[in-house]
Amino acid sequence: MSKLDELIAKLCPNGVEYKEIRSMTSILRGKRLTKNQLFPEEQFPVYHGGLEPLGFYNEKNRNADTVMVINVGASAGTVGYSPVDFWSSDGCFCIEHSNQFINRYMYYAILCQESYLKSRVRVAGIPTLDNAVVERAYSRAYSRAYSRAYSRAYSRAYS
Asked: Tens-digit pLDDT profile for the chain (159 aa)?
C-alpha cells in the first residue's frame, strides 16, 4: 500500500468525491495596470500573462497563499501559486480562498490538470483561456486533514 493509499484510508475512510472548482469557490479576475504604474521599489509583485512578475505595485488585490491560472498569452493555462501578497491583473485568474479546501492542496490538484487547461486555450490571435474552463476543472474533495498531509508531502517531494 502506498503512502497516498494509507493517507486516504486513514483520513478519508468514506472515500472521496470529485467536485468542480466552481462548486467550492469562485474564480477571480484581476484588474489591469499600466506599465507607468509599476515601479521596482514597490512591495507587491504584479502578475499578468506569466509567472514572473511584470513589475511591482504599491497595493495588493490578492492575499498570500493564492492559486493562480494564467489566462492570456504564451503562458495561458499555466498554474501558479503565490506565497506572498500580490496584485493580480486581468491576465491572471485566481482561485478565491475558501474554508472548503486548503489552498496549497488546491494548487497541486489544479497543477495536475495543467495540460488539460493548456489544451483548452483558444489560439486565434492572442492565446486566451476562458474562466469557465477553470471553473469546470475537477478536484478531489478530500478532508482538510488529508489535504494538509498531502500538501506537506508533495511540497517536500517536489521542492
From this structure: 566 667 777 777 777 777 888 888 999 999 999 999 999 999 999 999 999 999 999 999 999 999 999 999 999 999 999 999 999 999 999 999 988 888 988 898 899 889 999 999 999 889 999 988 998 886 665 556 666 776 777 666 655
Query: C-alpha cell of 153?
Result: 508531502
Query: What single string gives the DSSP state of each residue in 66-126?
Result: EEEEE-BSTTTT-EEEESS-BEE-TTEEEEPP-TTS-HHHHHHHHHTTHHHHHHT-B-SSS
The size of the chain, in residues, is: 159
- What residue ranges define each of the domains in the chain, with the CATH number in brackets? 13-158 (3.90.220.20)
**Which amino acid makes up residue 148?**
R
